[in-house]
Amino acid sequence: MENTLKTENFNVTTIVEFVLLGFSDIPNLQWILFGIFLVIYLTILMCNSIIILIIRIDPALQTPMYFFLSNFSFLEICYVTVTIPRMLMDLVTQKGNISFFACAAQMCFVLMFGGSECLLLTVMAYDRYVAICNPLHYPLVMNHKVCVQLVTVAWISGVPVVIGQTCQIFSLPFCGSNTINHFFCDLPPVFKLACGDTFLNEIAVYVVAVVFVMIPFLLIVVSYGKIISNILKLSTAKGRAKAFSTCSSHLIVVVLFYGTATITYLQPKPNQSEGVGKLISLFYTILIPTLNPLIYTLRNKDIMVALRKLLTKLLP
């Protein structure tokens, strides 16, 4: 009995690194995937950087809506930088080894930036609600000080919670396999490697997911319910179209982001398929950040006008 306990303790303490399987099940496509993801990553960096630059230099875009959008674009850059460079390195080396600390750090930053994105999307919905439903009070309610405070809350309010949760998860005993069937250290696949009873940890994850995913989502739904109700009361079709165009891009992003996040973090553990989970994660960590700049620029006349001005100055 004593020898068994020693062996179990040895197994638990010897896991000092994990192995990310990534896309090792399709070895013939490694370099093609590397090329695709590299182009996607550079596109995300370039498009979001252009949005930030345009908003910063164009006087017509010095409004709360675009202040929040510039923060959202910077957040997207941070979010993808946590996962894609590491994935590109693994595709090149064809080794997915990641240290225990690096895995914990990656999970912490993914959850931190993901939580900030949920809160920032809620702030952006509130901004549209005030602009459309209370236009006369908009300059007073959404003054620069309030905007900075809302953005600060969105960026930092989840930090202590995420750090605490990450420490809690990586304090669990890990024994047996150290192979993570994923391309980054995400919650569901890491939980599957933990030994013993993880019930309390899973309850904690659901509670945090409800606070940072479901409650903000419900606030967004309420905001848009009032926005749509207010838009329908407008007397002219042109007025309704103009009002809806200011929030349609944000609404599309909300549906895409919250849909995939809810499926990933609020799905019961026994129902999670590793292949499907990896595909969904690929969608919300890579595809949606790629689409977001296109959604916000192609559907936004102010951004397109500012972009043309910038191109005119750079390419006379």
From TrEMBL:
<keyword id="KW-0552">Olfaction</keyword>
<keyword id="KW-0675">Receptor</keyword>
<feature type="transmembrane region" description="Helical">
    <location>
        <begin position="98"/>
        <end position="126"/>
    </location>
</feature>
<keyword id="KW-0812">Transmembrane</keyword>
<keyword id="KW-0472">Membrane</keyword>
<comment type="function">
    <text>Putative odorant or sperm cell receptor.</text>
</comment>
<dbReference type="InterPro" id="IPR017452">
    <property type="entry name" value="GPCR_Rhodpsn_7TM"/>
</dbReference>
<feature type="transmembrane region" description="Helical">
    <location>
        <begin position="279"/>
        <end position="298"/>
    </location>
</feature>
<feature type="transmembrane region" description="Helical">
    <location>
        <begin position="146"/>
        <end position="163"/>
    </location>
</feature>
<feature type="transmembrane region" description="Helical">
    <location>
        <begin position="31"/>
        <end position="54"/>
    </location>
</feature>
<keyword id="KW-0297">G-protein coupled receptor</keyword>
<keyword id="KW-0716">Sensory transduction</keyword>
<keyword id="KW-1133">Transmembrane helix</keyword>
<feature type="transmembrane region" description="Helical">
    <location>
        <begin position="243"/>
        <end position="267"/>
    </location>
</feature>
<protein>
    <recommendedName>
        <fullName>Olfactory receptor</fullName>
    </recommendedName>
</protein>
<comment type="similarity">
    <text>Belongs to the G-protein coupled receptor 1 family.</text>
</comment>
<feature type="domain" description="G-protein coupled receptors family 1 profile">
    <location>
        <begin position="47"/>
        <end position="296"/>
    </location>
</feature>
<dbReference type="GO" id="GO:0005886">
    <property type="term" value="C:plasma membrane"/>
</dbReference>
<dbReference type="InterPro" id="IPR000276">
    <property type="entry name" value="GPCR_Rhodpsn"/>
</dbReference>
<dbReference type="GO" id="GO:0004984">
    <property type="term" value="F:olfactory receptor activity"/>
</dbReference>
<dbReference type="GO" id="GO:0004930">
    <property type="term" value="F:G protein-coupled receptor activity"/>
</dbReference>
<feature type="transmembrane region" description="Helical">
    <location>
        <begin position="203"/>
        <end position="222"/>
    </location>
</feature>
<dbReference type="InterPro" id="IPR000725">
    <property type="entry name" value="Olfact_rcpt"/>
</dbReference>
<keyword id="KW-0807">Transducer</keyword>
<keyword id="KW-1003">Cell membrane</keyword>
<feature type="transmembrane region" description="Helical">
    <location>
        <begin position="66"/>
        <end position="86"/>
    </location>
</feature>
<dbReference type="Pfam" id="PF13853">
    <property type="entry name" value="7tm_4"/>
</dbReference>
